[in-house]
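Researcher: We plan to redesign the surface later, but first we want a full-length starting point. Tokens attached.
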């Protein structure tokens, strides 16, 4: 029975119904401990079952942040072994995703155990696997996923919650999380996360309020078993005052039956019910409190020391008093506060002994029964068994790394390092020395997003490491260089990598040296003042081969191929293809993805769009199969697949792919993916462009690439809306950054020249010679920048090749520059259209071909070649209509009407004073009303000034007015 929660339940069921309709929703349910969050969500769960939804419920536990993804594992374990309609589907989904199976209690570690690459891949694979599992379940029926007690959630669970809230949009998923709001102190990690997530449009918050007096009375009546018979008013009053409307407190107060002698403290209140139990039952409750999470019959029996029958009777007594409640295959406390009170009431020695018993059982003790290393570390540390805690912490760190939980991995390594000096033989227990354990901790810190902490630790290690241990020194510097690069400290990163390379001689070749060479080669792609590439990478490849370092060799070949690709050298294809084959053979999915991205990219850059599409599809499929959809190169391949379809004119497929580019972006990586959707949305004139731009704007200062994509397309969006001033501001912002010195600046310069051409035309129409001259001067600067970056790289070296698309954009720049002066040059626009038709099939950049033909048709019409103009117009209009490029199609229709390039549309007969005017005369009258001169009317309608003058004279005569002013006034009054 649900009392006083109608509004909260309506919010939750509304979210569930929205999810069922294909609009993923998340609801964060907060409230004080005991306020009724779990009861509210239980009611929602029953409602979900009635709606034939799949229901997955996971519980966090108070084990610190040492057990990653605990509620996820709980939800999957319970659902897969339950009798709900989703059980079989969950089992099938788990079988198809081993990375999730490793989370479960009976998981065997699976593939990747001992693989040093797993820490880099586990989180990405797991997140992708969770998303895939939910999507798969949601395809069959709506899914309700409940994560309870998020105030105890580990860092990885919080990251997973953030990920799901950001990426779920059209899936039939309703995610509900509960947390204690009174536990969220100022420094609690969940506090800022809740605030961040509630800003997302698909996330709502429900705050469960305390009962009012009447609701407390109804609640007590329901507890008494006679809802229709109210509890005495004085009892309700006292219970309500003492409980302050908290349902759990109220229930506990009422259950004691003695309102006068109740202890004032909550712990005493809770413990008063425990004290009424038999000694055996009390021992069972204490054992359960130390367990920290679900406890089963066997654990109770063994740790309590009770025989099987007495243990069973004691459990039955505890359950009958509703202190423990059955939950799956075990038992949980009716409320977490009760467990906390019981645990706090234990004597120190008693608590230590119980933790030691649990540690002994979790260690296996030779009977085959074991537990997670994280739990073993927790209990061993609480039992003051420091050697066992140390060994378990090391093992827990490695387990967390395999599961892609770097925050917990770092925490366990930190604890192990704290205990290092307390253990007799720590190297034997850890299987490594202190320096390498610290190196692993630094790596985990960086993977958890604490890059600066990793850099600080590595810098300290450089000071303390044994100078004679050269391999360790190389490893430290290799990692340090990588992390310095992530902090954009490129100069120091390259110097550090160079130092790592110099520390080990090439003979004998070693894996450490090969990896250092590969790290340094990557820095040379962006900083190569001495021109070391490609010779350096070629020599390094030989070292990697001699050392048998397949991953390093593949990485070097990729860097070498990328170098040749930038120079449009034919060797790039062969080198990258070899790198791809080697990376796939080597078994490092991240290196393989990088090679597959370059492999597809080199085909895209040379205009082989069909082959590029196949290669990008293969790469994206590989990423998905390996759970790496959200890795760096997994995301890049998704964007490249989209861009290839967009370029080739397959906008239906591009739109399908862009459905996965969520509008909600709160982090840089997601924002970059989101920004790619703007290519299609701006070109189609979609209504959602402004919303996407608004959501991306707060992240622009963090990322120059994001500025390039977002503001470059925002400039085009402004131009289609007739706002060239705003477009110029966007263009200037892009060119002020590092992309202003790359070939990407050519496209932005072309957009800027389009804007300045519009400003110049307006200035000439207004007779503002100064403004026209300013537009021309700005256009000169833009055109010169485009020519310069086409000729030279940022270091001033001659650029060997521009690429097929780059040459087309440069031709567009030259044509737009002439348009700034009011000249529409057919030859320049014809050249631009032809150059955009690159590639093996001549299809090229379909949309940009149509945009070039739009201007070519305009230029031909102005030159008087009406037939050629009409032919180009029809081809451009046909493409725009097929693509759904609404802004371009509108511009073409306007041109077609003004230049009479298309058959005139059927119009209703004009009435009133304009009935005698021809269609052409009405067009002229509109321009007269705008204040246009005969010369300007002639330019707009592609007629001679003399013909324009004749039309004006005929209009004045037919309207029986004395001049242009009266004709304009009549047109405005009649709303022509």
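Model: Full-length starting sequence:
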């Amino acid at each position: 029975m649900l009392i006083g929660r109608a509004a909260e339940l309506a919010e939750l069921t509304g979210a569930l119904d929205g999810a069922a309709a294909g609009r993923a929703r998340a609801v964060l349910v907060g409230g004080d401990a005991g306020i009724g969050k779990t009861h509210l969500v239980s009611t929602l769960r029953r409602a979900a079952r009635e709606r034939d939804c799949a229901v997955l419920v996971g519980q966090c536990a108070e084990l610190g942040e040492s057990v990653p993804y605990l509620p996820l594992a709980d939800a999957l374990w319970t659902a897969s072994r339950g009798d709900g309609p989703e059980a079989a589907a969950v089992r099938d989904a788990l079988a198809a995703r081993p990375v999730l199976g490793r989370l479960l209690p009976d998981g065997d570690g699976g593939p990747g155990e001992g693989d040093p690459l797993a820490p880099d891949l586990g989180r990405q694979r797991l997140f992708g696997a969770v998303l895939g599992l939910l999507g798969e379940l949601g395809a069959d029926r709506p899914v309700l996923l409940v994560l309870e007690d998020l105030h105890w959630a580990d860092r990885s669970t919080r990251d997973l919650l953030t990920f799901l809230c950001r990426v779920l949009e059209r899936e039939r998923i309703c995610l509900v999380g509960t947390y204690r709001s009174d536990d969220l102190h100022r420094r609690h990690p969940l506090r800022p996360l809740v605030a961040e997530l509630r800003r997302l449009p698909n996330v709502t918050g429900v705050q469960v309020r305390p009962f009012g007096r009447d609701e407390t009375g109804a609640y007590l009546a329901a507890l008494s078993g006679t809802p229709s018979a109210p509890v005495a008013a004085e009892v309700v009053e006292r219970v309500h005052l003492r409980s302050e409307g908290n349902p759990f407190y109220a229930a506990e107060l009422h259950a004691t039956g003695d309102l006068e002698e109740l202890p004032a403290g909550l712990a005493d209140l809770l413990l008063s019910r425990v004290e009424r139990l038999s000694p055996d039952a009390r021992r069972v409750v204490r054992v359960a409190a130390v367990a920290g999470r679900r406890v089963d019959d066997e654990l109770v029996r063994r740790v309590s020391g009770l025989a099987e029958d007495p243990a069973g009777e004691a459990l039955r007594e505890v359950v009958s008093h509703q202190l423990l409640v059955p939950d799956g295959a075990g038992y949980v406390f009716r409320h977490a506060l009760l467990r906390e009170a019981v645990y706090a009431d234990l004597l120190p020695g008693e608590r230590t002994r119980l933790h030691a018993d649990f540690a002994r059982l979790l260690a296996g003790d030779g009977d085959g029964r074991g537990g997670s290393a994280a739990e073993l570390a927790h209990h061993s540390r609480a039992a003051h068994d420091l050697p066992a805690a140390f060994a378990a912490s090391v093992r827990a760190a490695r387990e967390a790394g395999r599961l892609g939980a770097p925050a917990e991995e770092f925490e366990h390594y930190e604890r192990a390092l704290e205990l290092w000096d307390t253990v007799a033989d720590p190297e034997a227990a850890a299987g490594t020395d202190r320096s390498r354990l610290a190196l692993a901790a630094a790596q985990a810190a960086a993977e958890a997003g604490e890059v600066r902490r990793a850099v600080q630790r590595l810098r300290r290690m450089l000071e303390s490491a044994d100078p004679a241990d050269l391999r360790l020194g190389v490893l430290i510097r290799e990692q340090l260089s990588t992390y310095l690069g992530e902090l954009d400290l490129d100069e120091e990163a390259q110097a550090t990598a160079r130092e790592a390379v110099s520390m080990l001689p090439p003979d004998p070749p070693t894996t450490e040296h090969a990896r250092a060479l590969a790290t340094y080669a990557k820095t040379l792609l962006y900083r190569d003042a001495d021109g070391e590439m490609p010779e350096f990478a070629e020599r390094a490849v030989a070292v990697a081969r001699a050392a048998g370092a397949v991953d390093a060799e593949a990485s070097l070949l990729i860097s070498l191929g990328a170098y040749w690709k930038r120079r449009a050298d034919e060797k790039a294809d062969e080198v990258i293809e070899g790198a791809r084959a080697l990376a796939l053979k080597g078994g490092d999915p991240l290196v393989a993805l990088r090679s597959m991205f370059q492999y597809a990219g080199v085909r895209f850059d040379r205009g082989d769009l069909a082959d590029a599409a196949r290669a990008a599809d293969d790469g994206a499929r590989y990423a998905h199969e390996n759970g790496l959809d959200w890795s760096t190169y997994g995301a890049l391949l998704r964007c490249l697949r989209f861009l290839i379809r967009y370029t080739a004119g397959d906008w239906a497929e591009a739109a399908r792919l862009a459905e996965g580019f969520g509008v909600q972006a709160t982090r840089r990586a997601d924002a970059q993916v989101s920004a790619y959707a703007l290519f299609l949305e701006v070109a189609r004139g979609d209504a959602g462009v402004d919303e996407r731009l608004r959501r991306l704007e707060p992240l622009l200062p963090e990322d120059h690439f994001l500025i390039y994509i977002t503001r470059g397309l925002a400039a085009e969006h402004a131009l289609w809306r007739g706002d060239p001033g705003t477009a110029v501001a966007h263009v200037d912002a892009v060119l002020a950054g590092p992309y202003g010195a790359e070939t990407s600046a050519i496209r932005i310069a072309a957009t800027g020249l389009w804007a300045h051409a519009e400003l110049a035309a307006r200035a000439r129409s207004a007779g503002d010679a100064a403004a026209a001259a300013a537009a021309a001067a700005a256009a000169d600067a833009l055109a010169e920048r485009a020519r310069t970056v086409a000729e030279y790289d940022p270091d001033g070296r001659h650029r060997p090749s521009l690429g097929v698309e780059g040459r087309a954009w440069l031709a567009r720049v030259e044509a737009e520059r002439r348009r700034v002066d009011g000249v529409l040059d057919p030859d320049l626009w014809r050249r631009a259209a032809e150059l955009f038709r690159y590639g093996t099939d001549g299809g090229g950049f379909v949309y940009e071909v149509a945009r070039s033909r739009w201007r070519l048709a305009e230029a031909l019409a102005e030159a008087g070649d009406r037939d050629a103009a009409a032919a180009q117009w029809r081809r451009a209009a046909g493409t725009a209509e097929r693509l759904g490029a609404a802004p371009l199609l509108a511009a073409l229709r306007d041109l077609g009407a003004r230049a009479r390039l298309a058959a005139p549309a059927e119009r209703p007969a004009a009435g009133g004073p304009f009935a005698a005017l021809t269609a052409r005369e009405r067009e002229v009258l509109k321009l007269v009303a705008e204040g246009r001169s005969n010369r300007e009317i002639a330019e707009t309608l592609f007629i001679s000034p003399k013909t324009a003058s004749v039309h004006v004279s005929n209009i004045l005569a037919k309207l029986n007015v004395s001049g242009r002013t009266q004709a304009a006034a009549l047109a405005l009054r009649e709303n022509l």
